[in-house]
Amino acid sequence: MQWYLVAALLTVLTSSQGILTTLSQSNGKYKYDYATIPFLAEFFKLSVSSFFLWKECQSSSPSRMTKEWRSVRLYLVPSVIYLIHNNVQFATLTYVDPSTYQIMGNLKIVTTGILFRLVLKRKLSNLQWMAIVLLAVGTTTSQVKGCGDAPCDSLFSAPLQGYMLGILSACLSALAGVYTEYLMKKNNDSLYWQNVQLYTFGVIFNMGWLIYGDFKAGFESGPWWQRLFNGYSITTWMVVFNLGSTGLLVSWLMKYSDNIVKVYSTSMAMLLTMVLSIYLFSVKATIQLFLGIIICIISLQMYFMPVHMLIELPQTLPVTSK
Question: Structure pTM?
Fold first, then answer.
């Protein structure tokens, strides 16, 4: 399977993630404990990866698996980063409004490119750097509201702590992605074995988060495992399946492609979600959205197209001998 097919599927799944989550609400509220969604998604990813790893082990050519603890413990790091990132997200939203938070989240596009260069030592051309910056500009443009919808100075009214936490959130998101790519490519281990290690820690940390929530609430609703499926509907299960499948596709991209492809997939998914929301939830279309889509398409062409297709180089005249 080619990476661009996986990227296209990732775009579709990511764009439907927010829509399914919205549809899973009842009268604007969740009937289920939304903290159980990441736990079940991690468990789904672990189960699928374990099954395919078992199938690989049954084949004539056994999978390569590095089992030393010094290697396994490295897979704990992304779980810690994501746990910190989730808490920073909540802290950021106490200082800034959701629109400002979404716009600041686009910083992860640029920070991913920077860490991609510094950590993975992957060199990008000047044209590719321009494309990455243009992608950030395009996604930001699509999210900016007009002066008729919200005060134009609302983006600059938040306290300094909000902007600092927003920048930290973007850096943590980029760091988690780049570090995961480093893990996936540092050796020739089976992708499914790497996923098993990654998602085992994911299950453990999400379970720990549920237990922490029980202690924080004083066990008013009972232990988490007793209410795990309370309020679940078919749409809720689709959210779990969507989130889990998205994670599996991202791990494939981290192994066989790179973070920049993932950034473009998620950015295009965000734009697709905004377009679909116009028809599904009667969201008002804006000129900024369509300008942002055009800018992002230009960025996509600039980054992935060969230079000779972007720039018409002058043909050199044949030298005639006298």
Answer: 0.85
